Predict the 3D structure of the following.
Amino acid sequence: MTTFFSTVKTARPALALLGLGLAGLAGCQPDIDANSPAASPGSADFTSYVAVGNSLTAGYTDGGVYNEAQANSYPALLAQQFAKTGKGPATFVQPAFSTAKKDGSGYIKLQVVNGAPTPVQPSLANNFLGEQVAFTGVTLPGGAQLEAYTGTQPDNLGVPGISVLSSVSALTNGLAPYGSINPFYERLLTTAEKPTKDYVTYIGQKTPTFFTCWMGNNDVLAYASAGGVVIATNPFGGLTDTTRFGIGYRAILQTISKNGTVKGAVANIPNVANVPFFTTVTVAAVLASYQRAIPALRDIYIQPGTTTGAANARAATSADLLTLTAQAFIAANPGVGTSPATAIPSQYVLDATELASVTARTTQLNAIIAKTALRFKVPVVDANTYFAGVAARGIATNGVDSNTTFVRGNFFGLDGVHPTPRGYALIANEWIRVINSYYGSTVPSLDANSYRGVLLP
Amino acid sequence: MQVKSLLLAGGTLLAASSAAQASGFQVGLTGAKNVGMGGTGTGLYLDQASQFFNPGAFAFAPTGFQVGGNIAIPRISFRPGAADQGQRNLQNTNVFPFSGFVGFGPKEGKWRLGLGVYTPFGSELHYQQGWEGRYSLTDINLRSVFGQATLAYAITPQFSIGGGVTTLLLGDVDLQRDIPVQGQGSTAPAHAQLTGKAEHKVGYNLGVMFKPSDKLSVGISYRSAVNAQINEGEIKLTGIPASAASNFTATKFAATLPLPDVYSFGIGVRPTDKLLLAFDANLVGWSRYQSLDFRYTNGVLGGPNATSSSSKRQYQDALAFRVGGQYKVTDNFTVRAGTFYDFSAVRDGFITPETPDADRIGATAGLSYEFAQRFGIDASFLFEDFKKRSQTQDDLISNGTTDRVAGTYKTVIFVPGVQLYVKF
């Protein structure tokens, strides 16, 4: 066989000459016009872009905010894509941490524990997994204090943990000075501002030409992720009522849109049942794992609502959801849930009734968001429908399937609630789609596969 | 050839050129005289290449030896449907298809015996690092050599039959793609390289020719389907994180590519002594190729139960129409020209990066110079222009073909060729 190829090899120079003779023709690379028109801002003006929101806006992923995560937040991605229209923001400032403390509040890593990759939280005990965290050592009511941010007011105003209820101090009659409670908000304020400046005042200081606003998630999520258990000392741990949500949301949108004169877009609240924090540890899976040792076991038992005690425990059904944190609790307390006396505590359970109330409240709050958006003439990115779609069918982009399965799905990160950089890129594409449709712009979308999913050990 | 090889390869396997009559320049690349005439040949008996085009016609061909080669110069461009960061130009690599035939028999006798070797494909595609479709394909390198032994017999001076046995002498493939799994501390995703050699499968081709006069000849031929089968391909993986290693244990794969059969019909007309016109039609049975299936023979690839994978192809039968002619300017010098239109075997919404097929139109030219009525040189040039072909992500979702990229492809191919011959 090689003889044939070597025959060809000797013929090659002759052929090459022939080829050279036709080099003019042969140099032609076909040109394909772009499938979509050149990037333009349409009727929007992206020269000064501000993002308002919570952890999803801040780029929170894998259980923390850190410089690398901020660079992959959807507002950072949007700013990057807006810039391609020629009328985009010259800079987009994030509340970054100093270089020596670039890992901010730390992030969960997958480590191989007993042969299986397990999410491990950084803590003092494990030297924060070697991460360069920014904790000062002081503890605030809402968590460990972080290094203060000393730069100019950022353009990404996302504050992890903030809700509509905690954004407007009038809603709690100023009882809860949020700037002294939440470490992510506290680090943005001066000492004088901390006890007095609420979020709605803080965002009012900016003068954007375009804004995005994604608020409301924590008005239901705080309650849901605590298994429906509200700690008395946390004024923001319940489901926010529709009246105060309406007042607060209108105030936020009125402030950031400068009374409807600034263009922007808002997003609504996804259903908590679509995130792997609630769908990974299933009742069926826990039952099956117990049945390996106890084949006769028929049900596992949970404490519904906020009850305690065996008399109030009941068998779990497929309509009940267990939190991701239940997994570690079950591992640390073998046998928990196998009988009413050892029922899984209610803070690890979002039972069917609690779930129904969370879903119903989400729907009500989304209706308020829709009405308010209409009033201030901005489009709504239907995150609720989008996340439900990804949870049901996954999403395929350029030959890669992403879905909401914990770890392997690559859409959600290791805390089970916040997306991976790839997930944020997919969400940014959805923002872009809605903005383009409403403002007639042609902001280019992102290749989500260029952003990482979950990194495996 | 390159594109068609991709077409046939469907991603990993080799394809028999013989089967791919409807593959544009591929047909032409066997026999420089035929290339110059638009790839016609079923109704002609010009030289030894008739062993390939119509074994029946071979009975009327002169005896002799010929060997030739080509440079296939492709230029392929891709533009993604969304997240467009600009046109992607593939690192086009030239490939060198060649063919050689020898034919024996009594000069004015009734029979012919021939042997031939040809390379249906030698294809190399290297996509830009980090391109949109890298999880579908990053590189492909394909080589194949076919051999054929032919016997033809002229039952009457007007009617002949012939048959050949074809065999895949050498076929190998090297296919690479990225895997959407990434390890901590890694800046790039994992990567897979699949290499394999095909079994020496055997096929046949049959032909008849009806030559009522020196002015008219009509031929029909049929090449059989052949399965290009890789039994023990090798899988080489890089960058698989340790915790995912149990999902990527396979090191060997098996895959089979059904290569289609081809029906051909051709006419040759000689209105004057100097002028020859030819017309060919081919129907290639591509609908045999419904999916590309891999079996991982000693482990899994991609998941705890992933012992196989399947990718939709659903190719459709394809027609090609060819017209060509040659004109004897002097006794020693002949010029040729031709054109063809070749329909795509790939349906809308099913285009894969290793097979960016489309309907194509070709233009060919050629010339021959003969010395002492015995030795000669043929030169040919083929230009093939593919129609721009697009698919959107919605197309892929509705067809269930989301394992490939949405976007637009455009290909052009230039193929100069040369051939030397001796008449016995």
The longest helix of chain B spans residues 2-9.
